Amino acid sequence: xxxxxxxGVYKHQQKLFTENLTECKGVKVYNEQLRTVKxxxxxxxxxxxxxxxxxxxxxxxxxxxKQDSAILxxxxxxxxxxxxxxxxxxxxxxxxIEFSPVAVKHLVTAMNKRINVVPVLADANHPDRYAAIVSxxxxxxxxxxxxxxxxxxxxxxxxxxxxxxxxxxxxxARSIDVSITPKQAYQHVIDHLKEQGLKIIEVIELxxxxxxxxxxxxxx
Length: 220
Ligand SMILES: C[S@@+](CC[C@H](N)C(=O)[O-])C[C@H]1O[C@@H](n2cnc3c(N)ncnc32)[C@H](O)[C@@H]1O
Description:
The chain has 220 residues and is an alpha/beta fold. 25% of the residues lie in helices and 31% in strands.
């Protein structure tokens, strides 16, 4: 098991892994593979199920996430990627925003033993509505396939991201505009983020793991 990309992420036989939280030993979140090496348990990180794993395998710069980072995650769904970030930021906190009540019900159950994850049933279009729960964060992650996804990211970054910190927005080209090419859709999002004062650090496409998706790494 070799450390790669950033602290808390490992590679073995071309697959990525994160180290499972001690209190979650033996617990799977999405039927991932568990491997024990020298008393530590590692969870395989599937790039076909998690766009962050896809972006890392495709060579994106390591996001500056540390063990004690505070993370705001928009579009948590049932917790696949959330669970790996929870492994990485094992001594930090991760606010997981999701607006589907059905998904949040699964999320709460799946994150039951993960004391660093705070599931929040809320619409990311209205960051004010979770201001009583969420404090300022070191990293912002968004995976929301909505036409106005760039706006959602900007508003949350302006409200919650600490100055100089970074975030990743996962862009699904087809949810921006089906009449333009994926590259044009990514450019549309990039232009909007720049207009709103965010700096673009890197853009990485996610194929072959996700078709017509890109990860955009930004700083505020
Ligand atoms: C592609 S899925 C996320 C997958 C997840 N990030 C993962 O890797 O495990 C997108 C999620 O965003 C949620 N979503 C869409 N619009 C939202 C909004 N305005 N606020 C909060 N969640 C939203 C959807 O309900 C869905 O669960």
